[in-house]
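Human: Not sure, check this?
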Amino acid sequence: MRLFNLIILLGALQINTPHALKASNGNLPDNMPANEVMFVGAHNAAMSSAEGWVYAQQSQDLEGLWKAGVRSAKIPLHWYQPEDPVHPVGLAKKGLSILKGIVKGKIEPAKPYLALCHEFPANNNCRLTVLQRAGKPPQDSLQFFTRLAKLMSENPKEVFILILESYTNQRSKTNGAAQYSDADARQILQADLEKSGLARFAYKLTASQSTQNASWPTLGDLRKQQKRVIIFTTNMQDVEGSSYLNPLHSFFRSTHWETAKIENCGMADDHTPAGLFHMGVGPEASIPHDSILGKGLKMINKIKNTGIVQQSDYAKVNSKEEILKRIEKCHAVQPDAKHPNIISGDYVEKGDMKNVINDLNAKHAEKYTNKK
């Protein structure tokens, strides 16, 4: 029975099954194919107030997101050269570098590293990110990978999908990466993944597994091999020669992010139809209405109705009603009736996202649990 046949039934149920209190997918049966599992996804997982972001998309750090049931995360990767003088820390480092250069008879700028930035343009050395982090430099991708690897080690039955929104090809004099070739960029990314220990958990998919109804490994297969992280990247250059990175757009169809574009499901027409489906439930404004920033903006708008920045009620955005409504709309416009493999949102601990997905997974798993 297809997962979508359960939607109407679940709409009438209260979210109170024991599965809502258990691990996100560690309790699912070994014989369940991995591409039939639904994952709670954190959009811009590293852009969290707990990680030092003033303008944030999440409130929990990586470990907190894990406890909230997140088993998929999207993170943007950009180049960052530390001594960029756009902020005081960078200016101080640049001054120290200049002094060292005078002593040595030459100035040696620090090497750029891959950082978690929320940035436009992509080659701007994370200057917008530094502003969003109140002057603090961006997070190192190696640190994030290392923390995720630790969580995977501590939870040997859990399966995780990591999406790299990769701008490793956006190399410029501004971010210090202009001298790197495509091969250099690949080597640096893979070195981070391997040094962190995350690469040893990574599973490589085949091209034939990108299609609808393709044969996938079961959860038990991934657990037995301890290859329980599937890493996708938006940048095809990252994949070349890699034994564990997978091209995102070959495997996933996707919706537009904002729920305001919910008409006809809001499918992104720039993605070719593929076997997996990533559904976003994000609002146009990612500032929570009950946050300090949200309350401040609301007060400003009361004094002077600018309407420039709106706030969102994430308990409603991530509610069971809204999630099921969007799933049904997407089901209606997709002839092959593919269920979402990942449902991504902001502030995922608010609302019902974890419970809805756990209930859907539990119902869908019944046909595997009951197999003799």
